[in-house]
Amino acid sequence: MHKKHLVVVGNGMAGMACVDQILKRKPDFSITVLSEEPHTNYNRILLSSVLAGEKTLDEITINSKEWYEQNNIALQLGSKATSVDAARKTVTTSSGDVIGYDKLLLATGSNAFIPPIKGINKEGVVTFRNLADTQEIIKRCEGGGRAVVIGGGLLGLEAARGLLNRGMQVSVVHITDRLMDVQLDSSGAEYLKRSIEKLGIMVLLNRKTAEFMGHHRVESVRFESGEIILADLVVVACGIRPNTELAKHAGLTVNRGIVVNDHMETSDPDIFAVGECVEHRSKVYGLVAPLYDQGKVLAATITGNKGPTYEGSTLAAKLKVVGVDVFSAGEVQSTDPGFETVCYQDESAGIYQKLVFRRSQLVGTVLVGNVVRANKLLELIRSGEPVGGDRYLLLFEAASANAISAEDVMCRSDDETICGCIGVSKGQIVDAIRKNELRSMAGVKTCTKASTGCGTCTGLVESILRAVTGDAVEEKKNQLCPCVPFPKEQLRTMIQTQQLKKVQDILEIYGNGIGCNICKPGLSFLVDEVWLGEHEEDRSARFINDRVHANIQRDGTFSVVPRMRGGVTTPEELRKIADVADKYKVRMVKVTGSQRIDLLGVNKEDLPKMWAELGMPSGHAYTKAVRMVKSCVGTDFCRYGTQNSIATGIKLEELLENLYTPAKLKMGVVGCPRNCAEATVKDIGLIGIEGGWQVVIGGAAGKRVRAADLLVTVKTTDEALRASLLFFQYYREHGEYGERTYDFVERVGLETVRRETILASEEKQVALLDRLERAKAKAVDPWSVETRKPVHPMQFNELVLPTDRSALMGAPNA
Amino acid sequence: MPDPKPESWQAVADCGSIPLREGRRLKYGDKELALFNLGETYLAVDNRCPHRQGPLADGIVAGNSVFCPLHNLRIDLQTGCAMNGGEGKVDCYPVKIVDGKLYINFPKSTPGR
Ligand SMILES: Cc1cc2nc3c(=O)[nH]c(=O)nc-3n(C[C@H](O)[C@H](O)[C@H](O)COP(=O)(O)OP(=O)(O)OC[C@H]3O[C@@H](n4cnc5c(N)ncnc54)[C@H](O)[C@@H]3O)c2cc1C
Ligand code: HEM
Ligand code: SF4
What we know:
The structure holds two protein chains of two kinds. Helices cover 33% and strands 21% of the residues of chain A. By secondary structure, chain A is of the alpha/beta class. Chain A has seven domains: 4-111 and 242-302, FAD/NAD(P)-binding domain, CATH 3.50.50; 125-238, 3-Layer(bba) Sandwich (FAD/NAD(P)-binding domain), CATH 3.50.50.60; 323-401, FAD/NAD-linked reductase, C-terminal dimerisation domain (Enolase-like, domain 1); 403-473, BFD-like [2Fe-2S]-binding domain (Arc Repressor Mutant, subunit A); 488-542, no CATH class; 546-614, Sulfite Reductase Hemoprotein,Domain 2 (Sulfite Reductase Hemoprotein, domain 2); 626-778, Sulfite Reductase Hemoprotein, domain 1 (2-Layer Sandwich). Chain A starts with a strand and ends in a 5-residue tail after the last helix. By secondary structure, chain B is mainly β. Chain B is built from no helices and ten strands. Chain B has strands at 9-14, 23-28, 31-37, 42-46, 60-62, 65-67, 74-76, 92-93, 95-98, 101-105. In chain B, the strands form three sheets. Chain B has a four-stranded antiparallel β-sheet, with no helix packed on it. Chain B has a three-stranded antiparallel β-sheet with strand order 1-10-9, with no helix packed on it. Chain B is globular and about 40 Å long. At the A-B interface, helix 13, helix 14 and helix 29 of A face strand 1, strand 2 and strand 5 of B. Bound molecules: flavin-adenine dinucleotide (FAD), protoporphyrin IX containing FE and iron/sulfur cluster (SF4). The site of flavin-adenine dinucleotide (FAD) has 35 residues of chain A, from helix 1, strand 2, helix 2, helix 6 and helix 9.
């Protein structure tokens, strides 16, 4: 029997998703797809990631040629439908072919809107819609220079971010007084503007572009106000226009888009339409989610299963710009009397969140700076489920996923383990608080030991404390510890002005003369850092790990982790490690998460002998110091590598090894954004991109997972290393003892970090680097120094009874 | 302190073997002690922390007390008691110095080597 012929015009996201749905219904169709673009179907959304250097073309391809073959789809690449004859049921293509159809599916999408601006056809003025555009933009970024993006919507901002990653100096020009004005209200837009500016992108609002100037190529942009800015590249992202030419030609009803009913039928019974080119109930959509819903309904209708209806979609949009979290859904700017709003803002944290209610239903939301609750809120908007009780709780949960309400904590059973490291139950904590009348976290920690391990449970324990004491919790003071009751910054100054070089002296002059396990190591770090290594070392003030340069284990033995720069080792090193492990009968040889090897279960006395025999430097795996640089194989071996991550990783490790830091500091260097060595969750990470590096800071995958923030994008390896060193020293000088970079960056703010490091005056930068260099000059590998010359003859020794038995048994001649 | 019986005092080490404000472990028969140099005095207690058997000799000294290096339980070296509401107790041993040597008075029941 003759199969019906389905011709699909447009090989885009909506069209192919719809064809996929049609295939699922095992139709009696032979299918032809006309594709103007010369590629198989790809994920248009990810063009932003391609521009940003995070994805390659291969990675965004949705269907391969084989897929079309397997499904018996005749795919005509580079073939544009130029006209439709609805009466004779034929389509004509750009090559002149006339193709007959039984059913026609129009999925022609949209075109970039090209505003009528003088000079718009100049070379260097491009749109950002398809792969060809993206490739052209990437090519034009090669020489660097100034890029101007016209349009501050989703697309424009994503383009701007991509251009920034490509090493351009970027400005975004927007015609109204707020960015993303379709999705955001004015406050949300203001918050967004600030975070975009923090990335280093200039935002110019209220600018109507009048002309693109230049001889042949664009050289500058003139606004109606007369203001002129320079531009080597202009990306026009002023919106989209549904591509309806063909439909009009075919005589279909077309308003803004091709008009369809709830069954996705057009005014012609044999012609259907789906995607951005469609207008449904007076709405035209520009995001994929609704288009997929349309496709499912259309598939039912076109295969003779008419029934399901499409009734419109709630729009939800998320900005795909790393480091700028924006989510918007539903009604967001209605000022109608029927709407009520609930807002939460935290200016310094850059968080703005708004809920819009109509009666008891949530109908819209704007989230900037924290989008953890986006899905939950969208679900609530879509379901229309009434929200009872305290509406602000929806936001409270959104703002802080970790905080737990007092009721919630108290509902847990007494047996439930709260602190997994130490093994403390809720009941034990509650008892201790009641029995000892505890009022502070410090008290709870001393009495129960809860929250003294990895610290993940701190939030829970605090909630329990609040619940039991009814909020009478003592305020945390910004002091190191009660033994030296001064703010930390003040301590630093006192150490400097009073020329104090020894921990015990500080304790005696400014403290209780005794100190404790918290302030002693803290002060040890401070004197070392303030005097750039020229302090008077007092090992008794150090934690045992720092007395013997090894990590104490639960049974009192130690572990040995030699440095392997960049995670690169040699057969000789491995042989030595194996020999030493055999000779000293270490209990376990373990590859650590930090790309090196750990020898576990070592006696203190054996440490210096093992180090000497290994002949490798300390990896500082036991202390608050520069730990390591993880690296991937990069351009040396990897077929994706764009930068030499191994050499750069080793270099970075050499530049910073042996230096102590407020808290442990881990680094990573990767050759491309695939990020195999996980640089985005390191305190400092270098991410190779085409033609440069991204330097990221403040990442962690420890008790908290935090993606690193982009500090800067640079072209050369030297610049990347310099930016890393600037941040490193700034953190060393301003981080509080025990404060990881991820807390540090959040506390002082990325903007401040940038201002004080990469954007600081040359003088300031040189001074920072100079202090780092001086400290580094004093920093030594403790293993090689202290095996030869221990700080005390008994540094690694325990006491041994005199062998002369009579001497030890006999009474002293007192 | 009543005069200890002469034969229960044992010479265990030179004073100089323990750095100031640090501790060192001493194995004696099946016992493990921690000796501390507190500047003016030397004190000795059982080495294993009552909480999770951490080696007290490796702890940070604060006045007349030490913080266990494993989980920071604070032990008073003069009484052997856990401080700050913690629980547990370690045994203490009298120490004296003669001619630069440290002597410890072990209870009589303690077996020698
Ligand atoms: C950079 C970028 C980022 C985006 N990010 C997001 C996002 O994060 N989230 C989101 O939901 N949406 C996003 N979008 C929008 C999303 O990509 C579109 O909504 C979606 O691709 C529309 O699908 P479509 O099939 O209707 O149109 P398209 O994907 O544009 O497909 C239409 C295809 O038809 C072809 N065509 C047109 N006319 C003819 C003809 N006469 N003959 C033959 N072929 C023809 C076109 O060449 C095109 O390939 C983004 C868009 C861009 C450009
Ligand atoms: C007393 C407890 C702990 C000890 C002795 C310990 C020891 C170590 C050691 C020796 C390494 C390898 C380090 C190196 O090669 O430099 C390591 C790595 C690591 N540790 Fe711990 N650790 C402890 C607790 C924790 C806790 C509580 C967390 C998280 C909550 C944690 C998270 C990590 C991570 C994520 C790595 C891998 C590092 C990387 O790949 O970047 N550790 N730890
Ligand atoms: S991160 Fe490194 S190893 Fe991974 S793909 Fe990129 S270059 Fe290759």
